[in-house]
Structures are given as C-alpha cells and as structure tokens.
C-alpha cells in the first residue's frame, strides 16, 4: 500500500481547473486541494450581473472549434456553447475595413496585402529565426507602409492575441501561425482583402458557473478566499503559509496563477525560475461595460445588427490600439434583450493620460468597471520565457501551468493544466480526440520536453532529437538576453 500524493493547486482559473479535473479522476493516487485568492473560481474568465436582470462574461469571450480540450471538458459537465460567426469592424472613416466586405482601404493597400502573404510563408518556413523578431521589424525590413502596418496588421494581431499596445513587438512567427497553421488558423489568407471570411466561433455560457460546477463535481477540496503568502520547498515536501498564518504541507505544488505571483510567493526561486518567470511582462487594462451608443459611433464604424468586434487605432499615434465588443451580438443571453451592451478595453494604464478615451463614456451609461492584469506577447516572451519553461517543470516538487507558459488563449491554459497533471501521474484524459491529443502532445513536448507515451513511437524519437537542440536554444536565449540587457 502506498499513501496518496498530496497536491496543492494554486489558482482556480482555466489551468487550475483542468489540472484538478484530471487529477480527480484518480482519487486512489491523489489528494487534491485548490486554493484560490478570490471568492469565485475562473481566474481571468469572469462573469458579473448587470442591471436589467442580465449578466455578462468578460476577460474571456469565446473560442474556436479547434479548442477541443475545452469543448470536451465542457460537454462532460453538461455545458453547451453558442455558435457565432466572427464579424469585425476595423478603423473609422478612411481607415475602415471589415472581414466581410470590400473597402477603400483594402483597395488602396491591395498590393501590400498580396505581398504580405509571401512574407508570412517565409516567416513560417524559417520560424526558428523569426521567433526572435518582432512584427514591426519584419514589416520595416520588407518595405511595408505605415498605413498597412498600423491600420491592418497591428489591429488584426491585437484582436487575435489581446496584445493591445504591445502589438508591434509580437513575435512574427506567432502572427504567421494565425493564417498558416492547418489545425489552429481562423482564416484562410485572402490575397486581395486580407480577410474575407466570417469563421465560426463559440461563446461561453456563464463562466463563473461553469468553473464552479467543474471543480465541485470533480470532488477536489476547494478553498476560496485563501491567498498564499509564502511557499518553502524542501527535499521531500512543500510547505505553504496562507494569509491567516496557517501552514499546510504537500508533496507537490502546482502553480496555476500568474508568473508575478509565483515569484512573490517562492522563497529562494531557482536561476531558471527567476529568468523565465521574471521575463513575463504584465500590464493593467480596464474593461468598461456600457451602453453608450454615442461613444461607439464616435470612435468606430458600428453596424449594430452585425458587428461583434471593433478595433481602432489612435489618430495621433496609430501604433496605439483600443478594442470593443458588442456583447449583444456575441453572448447568447443578451441577443434578444433589445439592448446594445458594449465592452471597451483600455490597454496599459501607463498610457491612460495620453491615449485613453474612457472619460468620454457617459457615467450613467456605465454598467460595470473591472480591471485585469494582462501579459505581453512580445518577441521577448517567446525568446526568453518559453524556451526555459521545460527546465522549471518538476524541480523542487514544483509545476507551472497557465497561458503565460506559451500563448494567451483559454485552450492553452486548459492544456497546460492537463499537462502538469499528466506529469504528476494522471494520464491525459482526451486521447480519443485526434486534434485535442495533437495539441496536447505539442504543448507537452514544447513546455515539458516529454512525449505523452514513452516507447518506440514518433513523439519519443522527436523528444530525443529535440532535447539537445532545445538545450542549445535555451543557452542562446540566455546569451541573447544578457546582450539585450547590456544594450538597454
């Protein structure tokens, strides 16, 4: 007889919930506790009631059919998604364009649109190099105009990855995957219009209820309103102290919270932990839920019956971006409300005084004001954090998951939790779905450096081949960061 392994999961967002779910399938092996500092689970995927007997989701809006791990888990707990077709309105006036109609801007920039497709293919072919190159550099090197960069490429990138005012610094390799990754791409590249499709997506049900249900029915111990103040790691166990001074001991700790919090909690973080987690950059963003039609009409081209997404650039500095949603065309509970409920996202509070237009929204039209902390997808993230993550996993009984370990999507957050649970000994539960398993295998190989099943198979061979290459890649990353820091 062997005793159960005591596992603490820090954070009840997508990653923590997925890890708890997977571990809970093996109660004979694991005794799981989830500690969450907030009063509700979900992390950055939030819900809130608003006046008029309604609710809105924020932080996470929806996903694509390729979110297989998310969709399978939701179905298991009886949650259904609502299909929507992605309708986007970019710019205002002369800079206006959409993904469903021709515009004067696409006509003006048609030669650059056609040429950009070839550049994306080149980026994809030499991805190892372009992972270190920000998007604005690639556009400059290839002679693209500021109009094409600021009015088309950057707003589109910000929409896909929520990168906001750090968009010019997004890795070029990540942008190429939006169009060229056969499994994950949203759009086929249109060599005349850039975008000409309205792909099917889905909207989530009430997020707070979804996460609470999954955790409760998984049977793990959930401790809400229980923030941690300190984590000490020893040779055989981990000791955790909460805000009330209570101490608990676990065999393993799984961090499913942001990188900033991890570094604050850990006593004596390792060299790789300091380098990888310390490189993740976060910014404070404001989400304003409102019903101000005048504000929306002033700053966007608004088709109230169609558009769901709105992206505009600042007229004084086109590299600065603002995004909005018409939730009444997106979230199913609002579609028949005879209201137009918007969310506008103001990015990076360091820019508030100069660029934010939040003061133009009428106070009596505001339904909800919420702040969140968003990490940046700049090229430095993929150069200095992602290559090092595999060397953190499992050291000192510590595991790391969350979207920040790779790309900021709900699906990656879910996969990261499943991957950490798998490494602890809970076999991956969705192997029957080819796309879900493929995405899981790719994440596990990249962030953990391991195949799902050791043996005489393709993934084991690939992991053996990649191991020395990734070690060189990590060394190059550290050297590059040293040079970059000295230069700056």
UniProtKB/TrEMBL annotation:
SUPFAM superfamilies the record matches: FAD/NAD(P)-binding domain (SSF51905)
Keywords noted in UniProt: Membrane, Transmembrane, Transmembrane helix
A molecular-function term among this protein's GO annotations: oxidoreductase activity
Presence of the UniProt keyword Transmembrane in the record: yes
Record-annotated Amine oxidase domain positions: 15-421
A Pfam family assignment: Amino_oxidase
InterPro entries referenced in this protein's UniProt entry, alphabetically: Amino_oxidase, FAD/NAD-bd_sf, Zeta_carotene_desat/Oxidored
Membrane-spanning ranges: 460-484
UniProt-recorded name of the protein: Amine oxidase domain-containing protein
Species the sequence originates in: Mytilus edulis
Taxonomic placement: Eukaryota, Metazoa, Spiralia, Lophotrochozoa, Mollusca
């Amino acid at each position: 007889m062997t005793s159960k392994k005591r596992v603490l999961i820090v954070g009840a967002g997508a990653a923590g919930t997925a890890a708890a779910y997977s571990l809970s399938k093996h109660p004979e092996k694991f005794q799981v506790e989830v500690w969450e500092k907030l009063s509700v689970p979900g992390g950055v995927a939030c819900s809130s009631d608003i006046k008029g007997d309604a609710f809105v989701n924020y932080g996470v809006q929806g996903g694509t059919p390729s979110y297989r791990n998310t969709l399978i888990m939701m179905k298991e707990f009886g949650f259904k998604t609502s299909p929507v077709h992605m309708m986007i309105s970019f710019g205002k006036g002369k800079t206006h364009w959409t993904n469903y109609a021709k515009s004067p801007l696409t006509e003006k920039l048609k030669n650059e649109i056609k040429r950009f497709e070839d550049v994306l293919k080149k980026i994809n072919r030499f991805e190892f190099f372009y992972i270190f190159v920000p998007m604005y550099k690639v556009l400059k090197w290839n002679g693209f105009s500021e109009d094409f960069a600021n009015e088309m490429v950057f707003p589109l990138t910000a929409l896909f990855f929520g990168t906001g005012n750090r968009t010019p610094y997004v890795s070029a390799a990540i942008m190429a995957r939006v169009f060229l990754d056969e499994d994950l791409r949203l759009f086929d590249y249109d060599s005349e219009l850039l975008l000409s499709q309205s792909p099917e997506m889905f909207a989530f049900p009430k997020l707070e209820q979804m996460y609470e249900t999954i955790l409760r029915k998984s049977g793990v111990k959930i401790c809400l309103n229980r923030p941690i103040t300190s984590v000490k790691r020893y040779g055989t166990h981990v000791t955790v102290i909460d805000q009330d001074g209570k101490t608990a001991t676990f065999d393993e700790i799984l961090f499913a919270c942001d990188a900033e919090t991890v570094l604050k909690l850990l006593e004596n973080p390792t060299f790789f932990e300091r380098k990888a987690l310390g490189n993740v950059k976060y910014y404070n963003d404001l989400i304003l839920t409102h019903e101000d039609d005048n504000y929306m009409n002033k700053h966007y081209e608004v088709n109230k019956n169609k558009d769901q997404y709105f992206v505009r650039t600042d007229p004084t500095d086109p590299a600065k971006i603002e995004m909005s949603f018409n939730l009444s065309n997106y979230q199913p509970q609002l579609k028949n409300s005879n209201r137009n409920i918007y969310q506008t996202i103001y990015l990076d509070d360091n820019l508030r005084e100069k660029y934010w237009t939040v003061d133009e929204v009428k106070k009596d039209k505001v339904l909800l004001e919420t702040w969140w902390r968003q990490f940046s997808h700049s090229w430095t993230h993929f150069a200095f954090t992602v290559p090092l993550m595999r060397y953190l996993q499992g050291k000192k009984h510590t595991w790391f998951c969350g979207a920040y370990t790779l790309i900021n999507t709900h699906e990656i957050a879910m996969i990261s939790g499943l991957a950490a649970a798998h490494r602890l000994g809970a076999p991956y539960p969705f192997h029957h779905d080819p796309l879900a398993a493929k995405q899981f295998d790719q994440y596990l190989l990249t962030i953990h450096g391991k195949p799902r099943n050791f043996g005489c198979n393709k993934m084991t061979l690939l992991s053996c081949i990649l191991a020395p290459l990734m070690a060189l890649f990590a060394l190059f990353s550290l050297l590059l960061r040293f040079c970059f820091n000295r230069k700056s």
